[in-house]
Amino acid sequence: MDTTYIVTFITWLQGSSVELVSLYLFITSVIIILALLRTLGLYGLYAYNIIATILANIQVLKVSQFSFSPEPVALGTITFATIFLVSDIITEHYGKKAAQRSIWLSFSSQIIVTILMVLTLGHSPLAGDAAQTAMETLFLPAPRLVIASLVSFVVSLLIDIQIFNALNTYTRHRHLWLRTSLSTMVGALVDNIIFSTLAWVILAPQPVSLQTLIFTYILGTYVARVLIAIVSTPVLYLSYYFTKPFSKPSHLVQEQKKGYAESERL
Questions:
Q1: Total domains, the chain
Q2: In this prediction, what percent of the chain has a pLDDT beyond 70?
Q3: For 136-140, which contacts have Cβ atoms below 8 Å and span 24 or more sequence positions?
Q4: What is the pLDDT of residues 208-259, one digit of tens each?
Q5: Comparing C-alpha atoms, which of 51, 5, 23 is closest to residue 227?
Q6: Are 34 and 93 a contacting pair, CB within 8 Å?
Q7: How far apart are the first and last CA of the chain?
Q8: Which residue has better confidence, 33 or 7?
Q9: Is 262 part of any domain?
Q10: Residue burial 11-23, b: 16+ Cβ < 10 Å; e: rest
Q11: Window from 31-40, 105-114, 140-149, 183-192 with minimum mean pLDDT
Q12: DSSP 8-state secondary structure symbol assigned to residue 1
């Protein structure tokens, strides 16, 4: 009874196209991001990236068939792409150091969740304990996936932030659309290549074929991430209307002013 409405809603979603459900997910994510930015500022964005990092690593366990791909595509792409969006918002409003801090917070959180869930799974299950099986499916870490995920996560986001910040300096804080799109596209490609190659070829007990690697795990999700990068650009502009002056910690204001002053001298 308590899950009737949720199950009905899920059934309705499953009757829609995969692309339409993905659009719902993206729009909902954007609404949440802007709401957190408005109410909690930087700390709300930190919280979002931590949650999204953990969820994306769960969502990637599920694949779905998109019309633009000949092969099934691993999910988690939408949620993970919004992490790049949030990182760009943080860089734009709070500076490079704040964005880098977000990476390490998310990185640490994923490790903590993995450790705590391993200890939780260590409790002896009761007979017929369905929860144990479900939790093992979601949280029993495959070392190769953990390594691939963490390495690609840190490297790709650091590259994304570096490119965004460099373009910000080069364009003298103009052309927000350019630095948003370009930094996300490059960072996403790096992430797809590193994660997919490590997880499904180098560290995999049974490596996938080159065709599957390229079209399912690299290009399959990258097409979606490029589209997300394009539609995310208006969100960056919109974020200016959701940022309150008091939401920016004073030390970050000084860091950002210092960065702008240095770029003006270049």
A1: 1
A2: 87
A3: 137/61, 138/58, 138/61, 139/113, 139/114
A4: 888 888 887 788 678 778 888 888 889 999 999 998 655 555 555 555 555 5
A5: 23
A6: no
A7: 64
A8: 33
A9: no
A10: eeeeeeeeeeebe
A11: 140-149
A12: -
From the list 217, 155, 160, the residue with the least C-alpha distance to 186 is 160
Residue 253's pLDDT is: 54
Distance CA 35, CA 98 (A): 19
Enclosing domain of residue 176: 16-122+131-254
Q: What are phi and psi of 220, to 5 degrees?
A: -55, -50
Could you tell me if residue 34 is inside a domain? Answer: yes
| Sequence letter at residue 241 | Y
In a domain? residue 222:
yes
Tokens 């949440």 map to which residue? 32
For residue 260, how far is the Cα from the chain centroid?
Answer: 27
In a domain, 232, yes or no: yes
Q: What is the pLDDT of residues 86-135, one digit of tens each?
A: 999 999 999 999 999 999 999 999 999 989 988 998 988 888 888 888 88
Confidence of residue 266 (pLDDT cuts 50, 70, 90): very low
The enclosing H or E element of 16 equals: none
Residue 108 token pair: 């640490």
Q: Could you give the maximum distance between any two Cα atoms of the chain, in Å?
A: 70
Q: Residue 263: which pLDDT band, with cuts at 50, 70 and 90?
A: very low
**What phi and psi values does residue 74 have, to the nearest 5 degrees?**
-65, 135
* Rounded-to-integer distance, Cα 211 and Cα 71, Å: 10
